[in-house]
Amino acid sequence: MCALLWARRLSAVLLPALAAVLIAACGSSNSSSSSSAGATTAAPAATGTSTAAATSSAAGTSSSACSKATLALHSPGVLTVATDSPAYPPYFEDNKPSNGKGFESAVAYAIAKKLGFAPGEVKWVTEPFDSSYAPGPKSFDFDINEISITKPRQKAVDFSAPYYTNPQGIIVSSTGKYAHVTSLAALRDAKIGVQIGTTSLDATNQVIKPSAQPDVFNTSNDVVAAFKIHRVDAIVVDLATAFELTSEIKHSTIAGQFTAPGGDNWGVLLTKGSKLTPCVSQAVNALQADGTLAALNKRWIASAADVPELH
Length: 311
Fold this sequence. Notes:
Blueprint: H1 51-56, E1 79-83, H2 103-114, E2 122-126, H3 129-132, E3 142-143, H4 151-154, E4 157-159, E5 164-165, E6 168-173, E7 192-195, H5 199-208, E8 215-217, H6 220-228, E9 234-238, H7 239-248, E10 252-258, E11 265-266, E12 269-271, H8 277-289, H9 292-300
Parallel strand pairs: 1-2, 1-3, 7-8, 7-9
Antiparallel strand pairs: 4-12, 5-11, 6-9, 6-10
Helix pairs in contact: 2-8, 2-9
């Protein structure tokens, strides 16, 4: 997730609640992501801001090449879109990706519209996060699931241009000794919990550089459970998810945010070598240019304005 991604999943009992101030421009999952310290905001990645975007860009792709009638689809006449289950806010609402509510559900339908599909021509299927970027054929046209664009994943799958750039957030006890840290160095002796296979784990090791290896868990639910019983002092997760978690975990707070190495850019995932990749990138870039991504961010993603940036 975010890609990440904390990428990932909130406890099945969590309800949507975000910070009060909304912003324009995601990123995430789990991606650039910061302005001045103490007033940092998550923002959509601009076209060409990452190598991943460049390798999947739609530059030079003609409109006729991406017309609905010419698209190479998994099922004729239907755009098949995948995400994980359960699907949590703020990315999806009510665990119903098909309702168009939540940031990524709305982005998926916006992409579909750019490709010429009506909402009724979009079919949703379930794809577990960890298997989405595994090599091999896919049972969907694209997957949108807070999936961070990384070089190892790019060897197995395609990514569109990034639709979100998300910083990482650090959740700690609001009454503990790490609640008011002012630097990442102050967290190096903390016992940090993080989900396996996420960019949050890479960011923890490469940026925070804790003195002890992070506790790594198979699911986000397990990470939250470990925090609640004080097995870990802190959780590292994408910032948008951090807002959601702290609204539900008693006596927790976001100690700060930091940028993942290279930025944590989230992309739409496709089969390696998919003929649809340049068309989806073209759609994402158009949504960036016409302000749609910024508007959807403002509607669904919480502001990072009150979270200090730690170095």
